[in-house]
Amino acid sequence: MPLDRSNLVWKAADALWRSLRRAGDARGVLIRLQKRIPLQAGLGGGSTDAAAVLMALARLWRVPVRPSQLTDVAATLGADVPFFLSGGTALGLGRGDEVYPLADLPRHWIVLLVPGFGVSTADAYAWYDGERELARGVSVREAQHVPGPWPSRAAQMINDLEAPIARHHPEIDQMRTALRRAGALAAAMSGSGSTVFGLFQKRREALGAVDRLAGSGWRVLLTESLGRGEYARRSRPTIRRRAAALR
């Protein structure tokens, strides 16, 4: 993980500082970053960090930043950063930075399989561009063979990056198959990889899949989806003041 200006946390602070027309480098802030989301896993870890910094600093610096202004700054940092300002179920257009909220899907439990390799976003899109027609054909075939009826719209998932990346990393297909055999309603690669996720409606079913996949050699993580309201509650910045004792 870079600790210089190439880190998205640093970039976010600088971008907000400049958008406020303040001179020089951003200053007066010390940020401690504790990573829990795996790197190069297609889970948006860096983008969530950037969005968190924008929300926190806008409050810490006590500046009247309009939501649209914060979204504009977020879009300069990455296509998916604007989404992480609000969360929930949404439609992303353009590069993904035009975000329109949709009615939230019901809560699902999510089992993540993280392999021992990462996939850089640059490589993912280079492979996709090189095999665009082939990747598009695979996506169409998969869409025609989605079993039904499914208990939720969440089962109708297609990731156009999955096919070209799986041709370079066959483990992607193996992980997806393993999740389906473990009872997932649906399984797909997350973002540009390398994580593959499976959706479960009931927690006990997800826990059963975790137990079944524990000896697979892949890192197995359990999480859950968040609606927009719960996401807003958890991501709301809080300021904690420490009292200094006089001696």
Mean pLDDT: 85
Q: Give, in spatial order, the strands making up the sheet with the most strands.
A: 4-5-3-6
Proper CATH architecture of the largest domain: 2-Layer Sandwich
- Overall spatial form: globular
Q: What is the CATH topology descriptor of the largest domain?
A: Alpha-Beta Plaits
SSE inventory with pairings:
Blueprint: H1 8-19, H2 45-60, H3 67-75, E1 90-93, E2 98-101, E3 109-114, H4 121-130, H5 132-144, H6 162-168, H7 171-181, E4 186-189, E5 196-200, H8 203-213, E6 219-224, H9 228-235
Antiparallel strand pairs: 1-2, 3-5, 3-6, 4-5
Helix pairs in contact: 1-2, 1-3
Task: Explain what this protein looks like in three dimensions.
This protein has about 250 residues and is of the alpha+beta class. The chain has 2 domains: about 10-100, Ribosomal Protein S5, domain 2; about 110-225, GHMP kinase, C-terminal domain (Alpha-Beta Plaits, 2-Layer Sandwich), CATH 3.30.70.890. About 40% of the residues lie in helices and about 10% in strands. The chain contains 9 helices and 6 strands, in the order αααβββααααββαβα. It has helices at about 10-20, 45-60, 65-75, 120-130, 130-145, 160-170, 170-180, 205-215, 230-235, and strands spanning about 90-95, 100, 110-115, 185-190, 195-200, 220-225. It has a 4-stranded antiparallel beta sheet, with helices on one face. A two-stranded antiparallel ribbon has the order 1-2. β4 and β5 (about 195-200) form a beta hairpin. α1 packs parallel to α2 and α1 packs across α3 (about 65-75). The longest helix is centred in the N-terminal third of the chain and has 16 residues, at about 45-60. It is globular and about 55 Å long. Mean pLDDT is about 85; it is low at about 140-150.
